[in-house]
Each structure stands twice: as C-alpha cells, then as structure tokens.
Amino acid sequence: MGKDVKYFLIMAGSTNHMLRGDKLLKDKGIKTSLVPAPAEYGSVCAIAIKVEDKDIDISEKYLRENDITIRGIYEEKPERLTGLIDRLKNTIIRDEFLEVLKKIEDGKELTHSDIVLLLKTDRKAEKEALFKAADEMRKKIVGDIVDIRGAIEFSNYCKKDCKYCGVRRNLDNLQRYRMTEDEIMEVVHSLHNIGIKTVILQSGEDSWWTKDRIASLIIRVKKETGMKITLSLGERPREDYEYFKELGANNYLLKIETTNEEIFKFIHPDDDINHRKQCSSWLKELGYLNGSGCIIGLPGQREEDIANDILYFKEMGINMIGIGPFIPAKGTPLENYPTGDVDMTLKAVAVTRLVCKRVFLPATTALASIDSDLQADALKAGANTIMLINTPAKYRYNYQIYSDKNMVDLKSAYDAVTGANREFPSYLKIDMEVYKDAANSEK
Ligand code: SAM
Description:
Elements: E1 7-12, H1 15-27, E2 32-36, E3 47-52, H2 56-65, E4 70-76, H3 84-87, H4 95-105, H5 112-120, H6 124-142, E5 147-155, H7 181-193, E6 198-203, H8 211-225, E7 228-232, H9 238-246, E8 251-253, H10 261-267, H11 273-285, E9 289-296, H12 303-315, E10 320-325, H13 342-356, H14 365-370, H15 374-380, E11 385-389, H16 393-396, H17 410-419, H18 434-442
Parallel strand pairs: 5-6, 5-11, 6-7, 7-8, 8-9, 9-10
Antiparallel strand pairs: 1-3, 1-4, 2-3
Helix pairs in contact: 5-12, 5-13, 6-13, 7-8, 12-13, 15-17, 17-18
The structure holds S-adenosylmethionine (SAM).
C-alpha cells in the first residue's frame, strides 16, 4: 500500500462479521488488510478492515448487501504527536535527533537514515525521548490495555537446523516431545476458562504434524472454545496455509529474523530468504493477521540492517511484530556469541511503533528471559501485547529455544502491566489483583 494513498478503516459489528467481510472484499478483488482498531473505537483486540479510499464506497456497498454489520467507517489520518518537541524542551537533544522527532510530531514518514539515527543513539536523554514518543504513539493508537495471549509450544521436533535455535535438528542432548491433541486441548480449555481470547500454537517444523493433523486441532479449538488461533509452525506449502485459514485460523507468526541476506544465509543453513518472504506474502494474501519480527544482536548485524527490517515490516503490512534479543542457546553453533543488546532491542521496539504505528507489538519472552523487569520496559517503549507461556511444565524445559528461557505467566504479566502503569483487558475472567497479594507476600 503506497505512501500518498488515503485509507479508511471499517469497523464491523463483531469479529465474525469482520472476518466474513474481509474475505468477501478480498474475493471481490479489493485490496484489504486487517489492522488493530483505533483505541477510541474499540478494545485493543478489535480489528478493523483497512481499504484504500478509491474502494471505500464499493466496499461499503458489498458489505451492506451481504448483511455484514458496520459499526463505523473512519478515515485513517496520519498520526501526529502534537506538542512532542515542546514537551521535550528541557532535555538536551542533538539538533539532528530533534529533526527526526519533529517529523514524527508532524506525522511524516521516516527514511532509512532517520531510523538509523534513532537506533544509533547512546545518549540517555535521546533514548528517553524516543521511548516517550513511542509510548505516546502507542497510547494514541491502541490505548492502555495490554492484550494477553496464551502460547502452547506443542512440539519441539524440528527438521531445520537454524544455528541460533535451541530446538534445531542437530542437538544431541535434547529430549524431544510432541503433545497429543488431547493434551493441547486441555491447555486450550484452561486458557479459555480464564477468558483468554487468542491461543498461539507454536512448534518446530515437525513433519509429523501434517496438514490434516493441524486441521483436526484447529477444528477442535474452534468448535470447543471459539478462540482465535495464531499458528506459528514455520514454512509450509501455500495450500496448507490456505486450508488452515478456511478452517478458521486467524493469525500466523513467521518471523523473517533478519532481512540482511548474508546474515540470514549464515544463520539458516536450510532456508532461502526469498522463500520465507514468499511464505509471508502468501499469508497476507490469504487474509491472515500477519506476524513477523526480528532478532536483535545477530552476528554481524548493524543498525542499518535493523532499519531495513523495520521498513520491511511496514512495506509488507505486517500486523504483529515480535522483536527480541538474540540469546545464546547451549549446544548450538552460536552458543558463545554475546547476548543481544537490551537497549538496542528497546530502541527497535520504539522505532517500530513510530514507523509501523497500527500494529501489535509484544513485550517478548526473550526480553523477560534476560531480566523480568524488561517486559515492563518494552511496554513503556511502545509494546502492547504479552504472550503467556502455557506449555505444560513437564515439556517446557525442552522448549528452550534459548538457554534460561523465562516463564511468562499471569504473575509476571501482572508485574509487567502494573509496572508500566497499564491496564488488563476486561475479557480476562480472573481478578488480577490476586497477583498483587502474591507480590506483597513475597516481599
Ligand atoms: N518453527 C517456527 C518458525 O520457524 O517460525 C516457530 C518456532 S521458532 C523456535 C520461534 C522463534 O524463536 C523464532 O522465530 C526465533 O525468532 C526465536 N528464537 C529461536 N532461537 C532464538 C535465540 N537463540 N534467541 C532469540 N530468539 C530465538
């Protein structure tokens, strides 16, 4: 979707209407994408259908003809941060840094060199100004509620040998596991019972989980709970993605990891970057809420590469962007490489919010694994989502994609959300204040 085109956001009456409406418009050949709805028009998990202004009238006609309820249609205005520079007037910031912040204030697009400048700063006042701008943008766009999702890592079998990953094929001492459909469903029900709306089903690239087996799982999740499903199963044929979408899968998370071709090749002995990008394009065409992301601190990665990653997310219209630090995993070829820089990760999160704007940005588990306070820091730097890890305890130890992977549970989510002075979604059917008492009794 180009630069000078105007867009409209269509809010449907329900998730079901939104998904049906999006499919209908796509079938009619209209270019649509699904984006988080503006904070003032719904909760953070509400999704809007985004269409170009040339298509808005015909889209509205098709939707009405097909009894799709429309709750509102809004022109998407460039998001400005009016008064940002004024609010920073007592801080010592270089002129060139201020110029980029001014562009953000005015709702202008950032160039590659603007982004590099933001990422390269090591000055405390400038970093604080960047996080503040991202936090204001996040508040304006998606509001204060932190979307909470539950992840089940249901198989650690993987046919790929990614050099950084703690479940790669060539790890001799790893005990492999595969949860059964019933075991997975038990966790899905426990998430559903506490009101979680989205379950993330993640695994290594495991051929045992064929198209039909995944299909059977999707059908059960939908039938028994009606929850939204995010799949994160790696690269699959287009027809698999298409089938899973038809059965009701909503989101797909397939991180590009880095857009630098040389680094990509070095860390992925069996992957081709163009094929991975192709998979991501298929997912988008098929109407998934499309997830990507990158790892910060890969060998040889520079700020210029991270800037390219961020611009790639924007160009591809990615809706969920997971940005986490590289963490060395024992027994992998990269085990002796240094951990990715925390500050660089937070800066990348902040710049991504400022550039990609209307997206879901998780405060990643990888950050929490370095220090439990870092999820709150990410929430203060533009993030708006937390992914709980719900893999049963007996398997969890063997899904250490990196060493000392932290447990993100309701208690740590409570700490992060309250630490960042943010709100829990009203769909949670548990009183999060019980975790306050738990926190106090630990003191
Ligand atoms: N197989 C699926 C895929 O390729 O998308 C999903 C599973 S994969 C283990 C999930 C994510 O873990 C990857 O996208 C990668 O970003 C992250 N990851 C793996 N090893 C990591 C490491 N050592 N440090 C940071 N992130 C890592």
